[in-house]
From TrEMBL:
Annotated organism of origin: Tetradesmus obliquus (Green alga)
InterPro entries documented for this protein: 4Fe4S_Fe-S-bd, 4Fe4S_Fe_S_CS, PFOR_II, Pyruvate:ferred/Flavod_OxRd, Pyrv-flavodox_OxRtase_EKR, Pyrv/ketoisovalerate_OxRed_cat, Pyrv_Fd/Flavodoxin_OxRdtase_N, Pyrv_flavodox_OxRed_cen
Entries under PROSITE patterns matching the protein: 4FE4S_FER_1, 4FE4S_FER_2
Keyword Heme attributed: no
Protein name according to UniProt: 4Fe-4S ferredoxin-type domain-containing protein
Domain 4Fe-4S ferredoxin-type, residue spans: 712-741, 777-806
Keyword terms, alphabetized: 4Fe-4S, Electron transport, Iron, Iron-sulfur, Metal-binding, Oxidoreductase, Transport
SUPFAM superfamilies: 4Fe-4S ferredoxins, Pyruvate-ferredoxin oxidoreductase, PFOR, domain III, Thiamin diphosphate-binding fold (THDP-binding), TK C-terminal domain-like
Length: 1218
């Protein structure tokens, strides 16, 4: 919401008073915006470093008599609680718009529920809930007007993602209506009164002082009349707004049978689902209804009771939140209290039960709504129930029947299975706008689901349109049209079970005939197709995108195929509108990109192939499947998702390999219980018993995915290879690695090694194994784990890697990859503090969900190669926590000995403190262990264990090993070697009969305590430069041995590319649509200037200088005190002209020109870099003069910074010499 406001300001859009919004950056965080009044009363958009800062700024603006608002959600809302109390206590009118979302508990979730808004219900803010996008507009107006009249702050909320990110047809109120509402004398008087109370030396007063116990309670109770009056004011304001909109609003809106016996009460988007269920049940002769709660605080029992039909005997209350250990959830408790008090006063007898639904964005469908009504019809309805899950632990769940069709007649539904970064979602957003705007009588709705992979993951687009308004806030169950934009999804997911019989199926594939389809798909899918008999169309969109220069962006080709095959609009009308929308969408990227997309549209229209489905496919061989598996996948049945997942998984070589890998890694139970259904999109059906409370994920689970998303993968040419390992060094996903083997090991591989494992004699140090055997070298790719970014082939100095189609490489190379995993590690033969040697170390970060070509992962992968056996990571929420920790995929793995990175994430703002706490806890435990070991070694065993007194302590060999370990216990590298010698001695002697208990205790903790942990605080620039800066500064100001790695991609990349204080001057980003006008914070220089030699600081760029980043990591880890490494991380958000495949070259240019300093001589000017990145070039095309000025200022900044760095280096050299 804040981004839209800032974009309006950049475009010069004026509000009702003729003012253009002025954007003021205050310690800017791109993810939070403040100070726009929905009615156009404000002239400033203010950005703060975090939600707590926003609340403080909001409070201050209100105290000054300004009119202000803000937008937030989830943890951000909780950070505002202290100021929310202050604002309400001061009777200060304002509005906060909240997209209600989940609070992080055992895990982070970005999806919808009401935990955040329920967490602030006690602060004194009036709370209004909107059910859909239309109500969100209408109640936003109501909130702003009523807040002024009531002299109370309002929190207007609606469901995050489900409502906030939904696209649908709405009726927009015209500006004149707003103007008329503002001219209400009561509103004008309220504004004047608010301003009169503002702080001003012309009429000074004091607010916010301290009070004693004698008066505080009375002062709080003095506000009661304002809250008592609020419901009436809100209803009156609703009536005023409804006079313009024609859409009546009630504090509690009843819908249903006038003599309903059973009703359900709820808030938010679930109410539209309940309405559909009410219509469905009443059409069957039942008498049911529902109540849509708009005003939640202050709660008004009399208004609720007035809406209930007198015939109501049973009431169900649905809460989209959970209060562990409570008597019930908040809405249920309010309703139950209201009904109980009414019955005590002589009202009718009514039974009230409550339940939970939809936590973390869990779907709520019409079938679930029917289940709630059915529960009310029972003789003893279940109370404190759950719906939408199978709770086989505490048995709270209601049984849910098959899904029902409650959509308005004539609704057409479309499902698109796309791959992240292929443009499918963006194209569908344009399509829904084209369809909705082409015919005023057509209503549209669209929502979009994404998996956790930053790029290359699954996206599912749900599009509906029809002649009546659509408010269905749930996924499409049976589609009229289905587009499968990656053919592999047909076998990986149970796509066809969601296609209507006789529907349209369009697949992006190179097939040209039924024979091609039969050769590519398993028998079970052929049988499904024969049963469903869809109209099957195929288009080779990837070939067309490649031909016109779009690479993986297949969206326009598939969108043209959609309009051609679906018939939703006349083609002669649809295609010009599509091209017009394309021109608008891609104009920022230049005329060439627009022309390429137009060419893709034209090519697709001529290349769509209609394939007839032979009747013989109905009898396709299904050997190898059980009858139950066959039945579960024949036709559009309503069989359980679990059976469908079982059958789908059994059919693919990739799934079989994943199962074998799970067994090999000891993850068989985890894979079958959780990972397999989650990866197959069948986890909605998992019961509660499948999960373990506390949520601990095992390591290395990404190697079970074998996604196979690359179009092309690298092929190795041994004859050209220089064995430098640069390709492995830059690989973001650890999908290409050097492998060493002896001739005997190769011979032992039999035909596998001979056919697919060509090798070279190893060059240089370590060329022979311990026994003098010759070692052979190979660069091996994992084709099913590679994302096809091609960085490896581009950085190879010898041209030994070329990209080949995945289909041509997968069989042979995957066999070779699996063989390479059986070979022993020879990492000990090489120096890990070198480019080449580091890559012989096992990467303990592999196959993450990061974008192809990601600039972040290679740094963290290198950390795991250098320190992984003793590495502890505290990860700030952001890109690195999503690609590093989205369940069930854990990319952090272990050595054959079971050691590896220990990883945890708390929040965004507290990562420095969180990591510092981890370090402190580990340090305290280890110091206690060292103290005990020293006492024992000194002969003071009696102080620890009296039974050991006078007996000495262990053998001479053990005492010598312990003495050596104690001497180096604080040196990570030396301590590791000493621990390898000490641990087996401790364990052996502790196991001997009669061993002292103190020795046994020391041995028991040896595995945890002998190694010196290498603690790293990892996060992005949004954390380090902005919201977490205060905590980071505090940690770096201390003397503890913690290391900080800032992955600087110069924006809030995880949330769409908003500006941060790391964003450079002149860059066009969200919240900086007119080009960022302020300079990048020089974090490294600031910290070095503040804390000097006490702090180790480095600025690195992995792609530009391999040696420097390796040395910086080693020096930082060895430094006795805090360290800070700021790492340049090219990002897809930079809009590099030729894509992320060129990110390494772009990073080199950034260093050469001084844009990113490595404390060396500059080469060239920053303009060379900026011209190739869309975040800068878009401003040059749109506003050349502004761009030139900002770029000139940026060049001056770079040169000035370089001069300061040279001066610092000179001063440090002089100090060292002195």
């Amino acid at each position: 919401m804040g981004e839209a406001v800032e974009a309006w300001a950049a475009a010069g859009r004026r509000n009702l008073h003729g003012n253009v919004m002025q954007v003021v950056q205050m310690e800017g965080e791109g993810g939070v915006a403040g100070a726009l009044h929905a009615l156009g009363l404000h002239d400033h958009v203010v950005q703060m470093e975090g939600e707590g800062g926003v609340a403080g700024a909001l409070h201050g603006a209100l105290q000054a008599g300004a009119l202000a608002t803000t937008f937030t959600c989830s943890q951000g809302l909780l950070l505002m609680i202290p100021n929310m109390y202050k604002i309400a206590g001061g009777l200060l009118p304002c509005v906060m718009h909240v997209t209600a979302r989940t609070l992080a508990a055992d895990a982070v979730s970005m999806f919808c529920d009401h935990q955040d808004v329920m967490g602030v219900r006690q602060t004194g803010w009036v709370m209004l809930a909107a059910a859909d996008a239309q109500e969100a507009q209408d109640l936003a107006i109501v909130s702003h007007l009523a807040s002024l009249k009531a002299r109370l702050p309002f929190l207007h909320f609606f469901d995050g993602i489900l409502t906030s990110h939904e696209m649908r047809s709405v009726s927009v109120l015209e500006p004149e209506a707003y103007r008329h509402l503002l001219q209400d004398p009561e509103v004008a008087a309220a504004i004047a009164a608010h301003r009169a109370c503002g702080l001003n030396p012309a009429h000074p007063h004091q607010r916010g002082g301290a009070q004693g116990a004698d008066v505080f309670m009375q002062m709080r109770e003095a506000a009661n009349p304002y809250y008592l009056a609020a419901p009436g004011i809100v209803q009156a304001t609703m009536d005023d707004v409804a006079a313009f909109t024609g859409r009546p609003l009630r504090l509690f809106g009843y819908y249903g049978h006038p003599q309903a016996e059973r009703i359900v009460i709820a808030m938010g988007s679930a109410t539209s689902v309940l309405q559909e269920a009410v219509d469905h049940l009443n059409a069957q002769g039942q008498r049911v209804g529902m109540v849509n709660v708009h005003l939640f605080r202050p709660w008004s029992p009399q208004h609720l009771l007035a809406e209930l039909p007198a015939s109501v005997t049973s009431i169900g209350v649905l809460d989209r939140t959970k209060e562990p250990g409570g008597q019930g959830e908040p809405l249920y408790l309010d309703v139950a209290a209201s009904i109980t008090e009414d019955m005590a006063g002589g009202g009718p007898m009514r039974r009230v039960v409550g339940g939970r639904y939809g936590l973390g964005g869990k779907a709520f469908t019409p079938a679930m709504a029917v289940a709630v009504f059915d529960n009310l019809a029972a003789q003893q309805p279940r109370n404190h129930f759950t719906v939408g899950i199978t709770d086989d632990v505490t048995m709270t769940s209601l049984p849910v029947g098959p899904e029902i069709n409650t959509l308005p007649a004539g609704t057409y539904e479309c499902l698109f299975w796309g791959m992240g970064s292929d443009g499918t979602v963006g194209a569908n957003k344009e399509a829904i706008k084209i369809i909705g705007e082409a015919d005023e009588g057509t209503y549209v709705q669209a929502s979009f689901n994404y998996d956790a992979h930053k790029s290359g993951g699954l996206t599912v687009s749900h599009l509906r349109f029809g002649p009546r308004s659509i408010t269905s806030s749930y996924a499409i169950h049976r589609a009229d049209y289905m587009g499968v934009h990656l053919a592999a999804y047909l076998t990986k997911f149970d796509c066809l079970s969601r296609l209507k019989s006789g529907g349209v199926l369009v697949v992006n594939a190179p097939w040209r005939s039924a024979e091609d389809v039969a050769a590519a798909l398993p028998a079970r899918l052929l049988r499904q197709l024969a049963t469903l008999q869809p109209r099957l169309y195929v288009v080779d969109a990837r070939r067309m995108a490649d031909a016109v220069g779009l690479g993986g962006r297949i969206n326009m080709a598939m969108q043209a195929a959609f309009f051609q095959t679906s018939g939703v609009l006349p083609l002669d009308k649809a295609i010009p509108l599509l091209k017009q929308a394309t021109s608008k969408s891609y104009s920022r990227q230049g005329d060439k990109v627009v022309a390429q997309n137009h060419a893709a549209v034209d090519a697709a229209l001529a290349a769509v192939v209609n394939i007839h489905i032979p009747a013989a496919w109905a009898a396709a061989d299904a050997a190898g499947f059980t009858p139950q598996q066959q039945a579960s996948l024949v036709g559009a049945s309503d069989n359980t998702a679990a059976a469908a997942a079982e059958a789908a998984a059994a059919s693919t070589p990739t799934a079989l390999a994943a199962k074998a890998a799970a067994q090999r890694l000891g993850l068989g139970d985890f894979y079958s219980r959780l990972a397999e259904p989650m990866l197959a999109l069948q986890a909605d059906s998992l019961p509660v018993s499948a999960f373990q409370a506390g949520n601990i994920m095992p390591p290395g689970t990404t190697q079970l995915e074998r996604r196979g998303t690359a179009v092309s993968v690298p092929a190795w040419d041994p004859a050209s290879c220089s064995q430098c390992n640069a390709c492995a060094f830059v690989c973001p996903h650890a999908a290409i690695r050097p492998v060493l083997a002896t001739p005997e090991e190769l011979a032992g591989g039999g035909g596998t090694a001979a056919a697919a494992f060509e090798t070279l004699p190893l060059r240089g140090v370590g060329s022979r194994a311990a026994a003098g055997q010759e070692l052979r070298y190979r660069m091996q790719v994992s084709p099913l784990d590679c994302t096809g970014c091609s960085l490896c082939s581009r950085v190879c100095p010898a041209g030994a890697l070329s990209m080949v189609p995945l289909a041509d490489a997968v069989q042979q190379q995957d066999t070779a990859w699996l063989f390479s995993k059986t070979l022993p590690s020879r990492a000990h033969l090489f120096d890990p503090v070198s480019t080449r040697g580091s890559q012989f170390q096992q990467p303990l970060l592999e196959f993450s969900g990061a974008c192809e070509g990601c600039g972040e992962t290679a740094y963290v992968k290198l950390l795991t190669q250098m320190f992984g056996e003793r590495l502890v990571i505290a990860n700030a929420v952001g890109c690195s926590s999503v690609w590093g920790g989205w369940e069930p995929s854990n990319p952090y793995t272990v050595t054959p000995q079971g050691q590896g990175p220990a990883w945890a994430s708390s929040l965004l703002e507290d990562n420095a403190q969180f990591g510092f706490g981890i370090y402190t806890g580990l340090k305290q435990r280890r110091q206690a262990y060292i103290a005990v070991a020293q006492q024992l070694l000194d002969g003071a065993a009696a102080a620890v264990d009296e039974t050991a007194a006078g007996k000495g302590f262990g053998s001479a060999a053990l005492r010598a090993a312990l003495q050596e370990w104690l001497q180096v216990a604080d040196n990570g590298l030396l301590c590791h070697q000493a621990a390898l010698q000490l641990q087996p001695l401790l364990q052996a002697e502790a196991a001997q009969p009669g061993a002292a208990a103190s020795l046994a205790a020391l041995a028991a903790d040896a595995a945890d305590m002998l190694e010196k942990p290498s603690c790293w605080l990892v996060g992005g620039d949004g954390w380090a430069y902005d919201i977490g800066f205060a905590g980071l500064d505090h940690v770096l100001a201390g003397s503890e041995d913690v290391n900080v790695l800032v992955l600087d991609n110069e924006a809030y990349s995880n949330t769409g590319g908003q500006q941060s204080k790391a964003s450079p001057l002149g860059a066009v980003l969200s919240m900086a649509a007119g080009g960022k006008a302020s300079s990048k914070k020089q974090l490294g220089l600031m910290m070095q200037a503040a804390y000097g030699d006490h702090l180790y600081v480095a600025s690195v760029c992995l792609e530009a200088d391999h040696k420097q980043v390796v040395r910086a990591f080693a020096e930082a880890e060895a430094h006795k005190g805090p360290s800070l490494i700021i790492a340049y991380a090219p990002c897809v958000m930079h809009g590099i002209t030729d894509g992320m495949k060129c990110s390494a070259a772009e990073a080199c240019t950034a260093v050469d020109t001084g844009y990113w300093p490595l404390y060396r001589k500059l080469k060239g000017r920053v303009a060379e870099l900026l011209a190739r990145e869309n975040r800068f070039s878009v401003l040059a095309r749109r506003s050349p003069g502004v761009s030139a000025d900002l770029q000139a200022r940026l060049q001056q900044e770079v040169e000035a910074r370089q001069a300061r760095l040279h001066l610092l280096a000179k001063e440090q050299t002089q100090q060292q010499q002195e």
